[in-house]
Every structure is written in structure tokens, then in C-alpha cells.
Write a structure and sequence with these properties.
Length: about 400
């Protein structure tokens, strides 16, 4: 199947509800589902006890200024953070079966977890389980079948979270971090384990990007969750941050059905929290990936600065280039990203993050691939403030 065709089907599967914990039928109905042993450190991508911790690698960045000059931004993890972060990665596996195995691929789970989550180690202990997610090929094989599944992706995430609680939490506050399929699984986890239950008192926040958290119009709770509210400020603890990103010049709407930001009915709306400025427009503190290993359908790495080629750090910052605001057009509620390009200076005038089909931007996806990295610095700062608010309440 051509890349353009599987991306089309992938999008249709998302629209049909794929990212929810309900997944696809697997031809193993007569077999008992064997539980993953989360006492085995090899079943964690990120874990304080894992010597091969994916989140333990260097996440230093090169700052590319508006004049094209560059400077190094070093990074260190907090050796004794007061809270924990539990992360569930998005749909990324290219394993050929419907469900991913427990052997993470470098170009899929490993790089995704590294780019989306490792930087949080500056504010929290990092836990990221390997789980048997629905794979990208699995979406294609089962795009028309959303019933009679064994929900192993959700079962794995719930078991990993409960293992963390029983063996590592010790009453500490925690942040849940997810994207896309990971977000949908965390939505189910919050509903089943946290919302309105004693464990809610330990929730510092939940960052649920790249999928829909729904509330009644004008409300902060009562849709996806009965009691866990949406965040209304950067320093608020015990709440949910959620958003999906689109370019300002390619907004959702018009022809075609866009994948993110649309509420299920006219009485509700999808959450949009702007990490750059919850009250309006603000500058995105992006940590853009400078890792050259990409799959087809993603634009090549830009030349960050023609005046300083050869940047080698895993991340690049472009201060002043990117800003964002939440837009609600009555149908879609989304995070609009603007680029302050200046063709006269040597710095890049664009970023990569769109899904490409046959070399053209596939508009319904928006900037889904970089939802997290676009606001990474903002999110880490917010978690730091939320941790302080949590400790002081």
C-alpha cells in the first residue's frame, strides 16, 4: 500500500474513534491475554532504575537567534525532584502486527519518547512504560473494525500505572503526560482510576495533547471528566492541559474533515489551553528536533541558520519565531501557531512538523507530529509552577 493511502486510512481510523482505549479485534479470542511484567525494568523506556533510560540522554539545545547566530543551551536533570511524571507515547510503532511487541524500535518508540518526554526530567522523576499499542500497520489492517477487541493497550497502561503507584509513588504528586493514542489511554485511565476518587488529590496535572478533551460549552468539567477540571492558569494544580495545533495559514475547516479540535455536538467544545499564554497570545518556547532520522511523509530538516551550518545538538530553539493562541471558530477549538519569518535574515523561515502526502501538506493533520515539542519549554515551566502550587496547597 502506498504511503498516501495508509495515511488516509490512518486519518479515517482516528476520526472513527481509534485513539480511544477501544481498539481493534485481534485473532486471539481463544487465548488468554498475558499480562506484561512491569517489575521487569526492560519494559520501561524511562524509569529511575533503568540504566538504559531513554530519558537519561543529553537533551541540550542550540539556540538559533534571529540574526542567525547560535549559542549552546546546556541541560541537567533535577537530581531530587518533588514529583513524578508518567508518560504514554503516541501511535508510532511500525511493527507489522495489529499490536506492538515489547521491543521498542529506535525510530519509533525510542526517539518519540526522547523528543516528547526526556526534558521533563528537569522537574520530575520520569516513568514511561513500553505498552502493546495499536500499530500504524494495525490501523490499516483493521480500519473498519473497532469492536470486539481485547484492549491490551489500555490494560498495559493501567497495569504499568498501578505498578508505579504500588512500588514507586509513596504518596508523591504526579503528572500524566500523553499524546494522541497516549492521550486517549490516559483519558480512560483518569476516568477509571482518578476522577472523583482519592487519587485525584495526588494529581499535579495532566498534559493531554493531540487528542480531544471535551467539556460542556463554557464549563471546565463535566464532559470527558466529571470532577477533574481544565486548567485556567499556568500555576493551577490538579487540572488538565489539552490542545491540538494548526498553522495560522492552514486552519481547520472548509473542505474535508479535520482530525482535531472538533466537538462531538453543538452543546460541547474541545479544550484548548495555550501553554505559551493561557490568557491570550504568547511566544512558544519550542524545542524542535534536530534528529535527522525521519520517515517518509515528513519534510526534510531545515537549514536552521545559513550563517552557522552543522548544528549537532539533538534540539534547536528559535526564540521569537513561533507564537500561539487558542482559536474557537464555533466548530473547531485549536491552538493556532504563527511563524514570524524574515527572509532577510539567515535563520530558517519555517519548521517541519506537517504530515506530507505525495509531497503536499495534508491539512487535516495540522502540526500533530510536533504538538509536544512546539511548546516543550512552556510545558516544563508550567509543570514547575504546578509542582510548587501542589506542594503549597
Amino acid at each position: 500500500m502506498r504511503y498516501s493511502e495508509w495515511m488516509r486510512i490512518f486519518g479515517l481510523a482516528l476520526l472513527a474513534g481509534l485513539p480511544l482505549a477501544s481498539a481493534f479485534a485481534q485473532e486471539v479470542e481463544s487465548e488468554a491475554l498475558e499480562a506484561v511484567d512491569y517489575g521487569d525494568i526492560d519494559n520501561w523506556l524511562c524509569h529511575p532504575g533503568n540504566t538504559l533510560d531513554v530519558c537519561g540522554h543529553d537533551v541540550s539545545a542550540t539556540i538559533v537567534n534571529a540574526d542567525g547566530s547560535v549559542e549552546l543551551e546546556a541541560w541537567t536533570a533535577d537530581p531530587d525532584p518533588g514529583i513524578d511524571c508518567f508518560y504514554v507515547y503516541p501511535t508510532t510503532s511500525l511493527d507489522e502486527d495489529t499490536w506492538a511487541d515489547l521491543h521498542p524500535g529506535r525510530h519509533e518508540e525510542v526517539i518519540t519518547a526522547f523528543t516528547q518526554f526526556a526534558r521533563f526530567k528537569s522537574v520530575c522523576r520520569a516513568f514511561a512504560p513500553v505498552y502493546r499499542q495499536i500499530t500504524i500497520p494495525g490501523l490499516l489492517m483493521n480500519a473498519g473494525n473497532l469492536a470486539n477487541n481485547d484492549q491490551r493497550n489500555y490494560i498495559d497502561v493501567a497495569n504499568a500505572f498501578n505498578h508505579y503507584l504500588e512500588n514507586h509513588n509513596d504518596g508523591r504528586g504526579f503528572v500524566l503526560v500523553g499524546h494522541s493514542q497516549g492521550t486517549s489511554l490516559l483519558i480512560e485511565l483518569i476516568r477509571n482510576e482518578i476522577d472523583g476518587r482519592p487519587l485525584q488529590d495526588q494529581l499535579v496535572s495532566a498534559i493531554l495533547a493531540g487528542n480531544s478533551v471535551v467539556v460542556p460549552k463554557g464549563e471546565v468539567a463535566g464532559g470527558s471528566f466529571s470532577e477533574v477540571p481544565l486548567c485556567e492558569s499556568a500555576g493551577q494544580a490538579g487540572c488538565v492541559i489539552s490542545y491540538a495545533t494548526y498553522r495560522d495559514n492552514i486552519p481547520p475547516g472548509g473542505e474535508g474533515l479535520f482530525l482535531f479540535g472538533r466537538a462531538p455536538n453543538e452543546d460541547s467544545e474541545v479544550a484548548c489551553f495555550n501553554p505559551a499564554n493561557p490568557g491570550g497570545e504568547g511566544e512558544l518556547d519550542a524545542y524542535l528536533s534536530n534528529i535527522g532520522e525521519i520517515f517518509q511523509g515528513v519534510a526534510p530538516m531545515p537549514v536552521w541558520s545559513s550563517a552557522a551550518p552543522g548544528i549537532s545538538t539533538p534540539f534547536v530553539k528559535v526564540p521569537g519565531l513561533l507564537s500561539a493562541r487558542c482559536v474557537n471558530d464555533g466548530t473547531y477549538h485549536y491552538l493556532e501557531v504563527s511563524i514570524a519569518a524574515d527572509p532577510a535574515d539567515p535563520r530558517t523561515d519555517d519548521i517541519r512538523g506537517d504530515v506530507l502526502i505525495d509531497g503536499q501538506i495534508n491539512a487535516p493533520w495540522g502540526l500533530h507530529l510536533i504538538d509536544m515539542t512546539l511548546a516543550m519549554g512552556n510545558l516544563v515551566d508550567i509543570v514547575r509552577m504546578q509542582a510548587e502550587a501542589y506542594a503549597g496547597r
